[in-house]
Every structure is written in C-alpha cells, then in structure tokens.
C-alpha cells in the first residue's frame, strides 16, 4: 500500500526532459499504489480547458491510461499557475478536483494537503495578486475572452511573475510558520503536505506539545522529488531528473 504526492512539475514544451521524466514516473512508480495526489502547478500555465495543445493531450492520455491500467485514483489541487484547470480536463485525465485545503485519512493519520501558496504570507505582493486572480467574477470574464487574448494575458502574467520571483529573497518565498501552525490546529492535524515553494524538505516541529511534520514536495526542474506514504511511514524520495530514463535501466542491468 502506497500513496504518492507530487507538485510543481511546470510542464511545458520548453522542458521536454521533465515531461519525459513524468511519463516514466507514471509508468514505473504507480504500480501497486492506492492514490496519486497532484498538489498543483502540473503545468507552467493554464488558460482554460479549451486550449488543447499536444502536450496537454499527451498528459491527459498518460494520466488516464496509467490510472486505469494500474488501478489507482488521482486527485488534484490547483496551483497558482494552473488554477483555471477545469472539470473537462480533469475528466479526460481521470482526475478528481479537490478543495484548496483538503483533509485526508492517510493510513489512519489525518493529513492536511494543499498547494502551499496560501502559506507564504511574507510574499505580500503575491498574496494581493492572488486575491485578484481568484475573484470568481474576474475568472468568469476571463473565461469568456477569445483564446488568443487569454494566451497573451496568461503568458504576460507568467513572465511578470517569474521576473518578480527572481528578485525576492528565499525567506519571502518560503512558508510562514505561524500560518502553518494555525491551519494545522484548525484542521486538527499533525501532518501537512504541500508544494509551491520548490524547497523540498521535511520539517519536524512541536505543535501544542505534540510532534508535527510538514513535508514540502519540491519541484522537478533539476530532480524528481515526491512524498511517499505507507501505513508505516511518510518520507520524501529524491531522484536525478533522468532516473527513469531507459539508459539508466540498461546501465543498472549491465
């Protein structure tokens, strides 16, 4: 029995090595798992389910085919780059969409899962922007704009976000511990799993006199990282980005 958590792959046509690693991961790591949780930002940018690039179609096909072949469930929490990902793509991918903060029973342990951007309160400029782009009325209007215009807006926002991110100190991009504690107390949990910060880590601390743990899943730009949970333990696994490549398998067998 295994459950896996991934986040922040930021799939795009510009990084085929990440896409290849993801497809190999699906084929090799999802054998004998119960569930795969994708905690947001699977794609670099998402402007609507009506944009269907070859990459999007390939990802949907791989998710659907692998989950049916290996008989596991896929759940998805939106990230800050793909918060417009909708029910149509989710259905095609055989995924179930979850609320931004979701409690799950992880082999008898109540666990809070989320993308993680709501934890980064020190990043005040992002939090202000987040309130704007998550406004239901603005999303309604945006979805009714021509696809070509949405593409321009989406990539403009992405470029501006990357530029601002490169200028921010690492501590601003990290989580705010007081917010971590507040949410964990609110959801009555001692275990939290998230992405967004790209700072893969396991953080152990004390919460109301009890040992608690926060897992940061990490991104896939230079390595493959994911959280694996079993009935006996929860841990982070890290591999080189080409770990699942065919030549790796040949080298191991030689």
CATH class: Alpha Beta
> Rg from C-alpha positions?
18 Å
Number of helices: 9
What is the CATH architecture term?
Answer: 4-Layer Sandwich
Largest sheet: 6 strands, mixed
Strand adjacency order, main sheet: 4-3-2-1-10-11
CATH superfamily: Metallo-dependent phosphatases
Mean pLDDT score = 89
Order of helices and strands: EHEHEHEEEHHHHHEEEEEH
Helix content: 25-40%
**Gap from first CA to last CA:** 31 Å
Write down the domain tally: 1
What is the total tally of β strands?
11
Silhouette:
globular
CATH T-level topology: Purple Acid Phosphatase, chain A, domain 2
Q: What is the beta-strand fraction? A: 15-25%
Structural class call reads alpha/beta
**Which spans of ≥5 residues are poorly predicted at pLDDT below 50?**
248-254
Gist of the model:
With 254 residues, the protein is of the alpha/beta class. The protein has helices spanning 16-29, 54-70, 87-92, 124-133, 136-143, 147-166, 170-173, 177-186, 246-253, and strands spanning 3-6, 35-38, 73-76, 95-97, 101-106, 109-114, 191-194, 201-207, 210-216, 223-229, 234-240.
């Amino acid at each position: 029995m295994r459950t896996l958590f991934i986040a922040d792959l930021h799939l795009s046509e510009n990084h085929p090595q990440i896409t290849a690693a993801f497809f190999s991961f699906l084929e090799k790591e999802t054998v004998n798992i119960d569930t795969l949780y994708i905690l947001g930002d699977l794609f670099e940018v998402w402007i609507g389910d009506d944009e269907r690039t070859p990459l999007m179609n390939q990802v949907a096909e791989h998710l659907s085919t692998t989950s049916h072949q290996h008989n596991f469930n896929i759940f998805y929490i939106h990230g800050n780059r793909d918060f417009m990902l909708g029910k149509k793509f989710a259905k095609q991918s055989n995924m179930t969409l979850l609320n931004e903060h979701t409690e799950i029973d992880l082999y008898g342990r109540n666990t809070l899962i989320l993308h993680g951007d709501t934890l980064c309160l020190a990043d005040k400029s992002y939090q202000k922007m987040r309130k704007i782009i998550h406004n239901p009325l603005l999303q309604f209007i945006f979805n009714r704009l021509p696809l070509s215009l949405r593409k321009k807006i989406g990539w403009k926002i992405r470029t501006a976000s990357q530029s601002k991110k490169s200028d921010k100190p690492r501590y601003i991009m990290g989580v705010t511990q007081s917010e971590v504690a507040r949410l964990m107390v609110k959801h009555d949990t001692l275990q939290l799993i998230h992405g967004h910060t790209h700072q893969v880590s396991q953080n152990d601390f004390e919460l109301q006199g009890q040992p608690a743990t926060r897992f940061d899943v990490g991104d896939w730009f230079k390595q493959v990282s994911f959280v694996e949970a079993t009935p006996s333990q929860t841990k982070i696994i890290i591999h080189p980005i080409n770990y699942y490549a065919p030549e790796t398998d040949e080298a191991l067998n030689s």
